[in-house]
Each structure stands twice: as structure tokens, then as C-alpha cells.
Amino acid sequence: MLLDPENTLFVRGATPVLLLADAPVHDALPLLTASDRGVSLCEGWSIVPRLTLCVVDGPGDQGLVVPALAAPVVGGADDDTASAGMGDWCADAEQAGGAVVLSLDRLPEALEWSALLSSGTARGGFMPALA
Fold first, then answer.
1. What is the pTM of this model?
2. Cβ neighbours of residue 18 closer than 8 Å, sequence gap 6 or more
């Protein structure tokens, strides 16, 4: 399933994040659980971060493809960088061994991590990267 890049936001950081809005896999993803140690592993799911396409692959027929080159990329919440490139996000994901994928009803206007992680409606978690 192809997800419109306008329904995504790639966020750079030590552990990069992919925010999804109105994703067809939303209900298949586990409810997000977060603790002081970070977000939970998204069992059975993986991510393939590439410059042109980003694949989120789940169990069975679940998954989606994002035309990544056309998607917005921003610096991390603690970063002063207003934007960055998809190549930088992919490098972050490679260094982290994956990315946090969060599926939401809609993309937030501001990146307020505590609100996103405690919303009770967010789904997803950390997905390991496949080579």
C-alpha cells in the first residue's frame, strides 16, 4: 500500500522517527507504550529506510511504502535545524539500527513528544532496519 508523502513526517535524531497520518496499517500496529527507557519494540515489524522509498513491513500482508524523496524531513526536537535531507534521516536510521514509527490520526502542528507518546491513540514503536 502506498502512503501519500503529505501524510508523513521524517524527524531526524539519534533515534529517528517516522510519523504517519491516516495510515492503512494503523489498526494493525500495536498501541504505543513508552517508558523512561524509550518506546517499545514493534514486534513483527521492520523498516527499510532508503533515499527514494521507505518501506514499513509488518506481519502477513501488512505494510506500506512511502515515496521518501518527496516527504518532509525535519531536524530533531532538540535540534535547531529547521529541515534536513532524506539522506541524513536514512543515515540516522542506519546508525540507530532502525527507527521509531508512530501512526497517528493526523500529523501534529508541533512536535511535543510527551503529548504524542501519552496520547493513548498513537500506535507503533521501534522497528529494526533491514539491510
1. 0.90
2. 8, 9, 10, 11, 47, 54, 56, 66, 99, 100, 101, 102
